[in-house]
Amino acid sequence: QVQLVESGGGLVQAGGSLKLTCVASGRTFRTVSFSMYTVGWFRQAPGKERELVAAIRWTGGGTYYADSVKGRCTISRDNAKNTVYLQMIDLQPEDTAVYYCAARPPNGKPVTMKDEYDYWGQGTQVTVSS
């Protein structure tokens, strides 16, 4: 099993920044290193479907960003700490949502396939005021 814990959410004014952190733990990493996992940051606003914001593949495997956040978000990972970050700048009210970290072992599927993620965190609230 894998446990994911998000932190770093909060209330910011429009134009502000936040850095979200996702820390992974679990005995599964003894078999498959965390560095091989694809990790995604999703968000879900009230009344809307959960959507992928950004994803990072196994180390060196590249990143993905939704069009709505390109240029404003940077996803990165520190495998020594089993941690993935999402740096967000120039936040806007439409970025308000609960942000979830999700992970999956390598399976060759597109990172955008939400149902392919095996493990999910509890989420952290991001609220952007205008």
Walk me through the structure.
By secondary structure, the chain is mainly β. The chain is 0% helix and 47% strand. It contains no helices and eleven strands. It has strands at residues 3-7, 10-13, 18-25, 38-44, 51-56, 63-65, 73-78, 83-88, 97-104, 119-120, 124-129. The strands form two sheets. Strands 2, 4, 5, 6, 9, 10 and 11 form a seven-stranded mixed sheet that branches. It has a four-stranded antiparallel sheet with strand order 1-3-8-7, with no helix packed on it. A hairpin with a 6-residue loop joins strand 5 and strand 6 (63-65). The radius of gyration is 14 Å and the shape is globular. The model has no long low-confidence stretch (mean pLDDT 94).
What is the topological layout?
Elements (H helix, E strand, L loop, with lengths): L2 E5 L2 E4 L4 E8 L12 E7 L6 E6 L6 E3 L7 E6 L4 E6 L8 E8 L14 E2 L3 E6 L1
Parallel strand pairs: 2-11
Antiparallel strand pairs: 1-3, 3-8, 4-5, 4-9, 5-6, 7-8, 9-10, 9-11
> Low-confidence segments, ≥5 residues, pLDDT <50?
none
Q: How far do the termini sit from each other?
A: 40 Å
Alpha carbon gyration radius: 14 Å
Shape: globular
Short characterization:
The protein is mostly beta strands and 130 residues long. It is built from no helices and eleven strands.
Short descriptors:
single chain, 130 residues, mainly beta, 7-stranded mixed β-sheet, 11 strands
